Automatic annotation (TrEMBL):
Residues 42-133 form the RWP-RK domain. PROSITE patterns: RWP_RK. The keyword Amino-acid biosynthesis does not apply. InterPro entries: RKD-like, RWP-RK_dom. The keyword Ribonucleoprotein does not apply. This is RWP-RK domain-containing protein. Keywords: Coiled coil, DNA-binding, Nucleus, Transcription, Transcription regulation. It comes from the Eukaryota. Putative transcription factor. GO terms for molecular function: DNA binding; DNA-binding transcription factor activity. It holds the Pfam family RWP-RK.
């Protein structure tokens, strides 16, 4: 349901009434409503000039900077924060040259940093800064791939964690 402000229904105190209506696409519309309001035909037949309380942004209003800020979120949450549908966000990403949502890649690098912080006695402090720089570079240019050295490091850390977990399971 959408919260809609009724511009014509006035009380005796001349205050605007607020009410909930069915989604606009289910109403018979007089004018095409693009998510910003317009004239609608209420189910009881009264033409009302309505305005959405929380208007959705136009797809073209989504700039690369706005989208890139949301790469650290899953695409569903990002679309909810940007107040657009997932399909609209994907379409706009393709228009902006973003072929794939970067959440999993960035999350993988964030997990790598957390793991290196847990294993700080192995001397990973000099590498953590490089991985953070790589995350920022990916946010600026989503088509970048993870560097080969970072992939190797990630694989080595994963293997060592697996071996430690495996040996602890066998000994207990």
């Amino acid at each position: 349901m959408y919260a809609i402000r009724d511009m014509q229904a006035q009380t005796s105190m001349d205050s605007t009434m607020f009410f909930l209506m069915q989604p606009l696409h289910q109403l018979n519309t007089v004018d095409a409503v693009d998510g910003r309001g317009g004239k609608t035909l209420h189910p009881n037949g009264v033409v009302r000039d309505v305005q959405l309380l929380y208007p959705r942004p136009n797809r073209n209003e989504l700039k690369f900077e706005h989208v890139a800020q949301k790469f650290s979120l899953p695409i569903k949450e990002a679309s909810r924060d940007l107040k657009v549908s997932v399909s609209t966000l994907k379409f706009r990403c393709r228009e902006l040259g973003i072929s794939k949502w970067q959440y999993r890649k960035i999350q993988s690098l964030e997990t790598l940093i957390e793991t290196m912080l847990e294993l700080e006695h192995f001397g990973f402090h000099h590498v953590i800064g490089k991985v953070r720089e790589e995350i920022e570079a990916i946010k600026l240019n989503p088509s970048l791939e993870i560097k080969y050295e970072t992939e190797r490091l990630r694989q080595e850390i994963y293997d060592s964690k697996y071996k430690r977990r495996r040996t602890s399971e066998l000994t207990s």
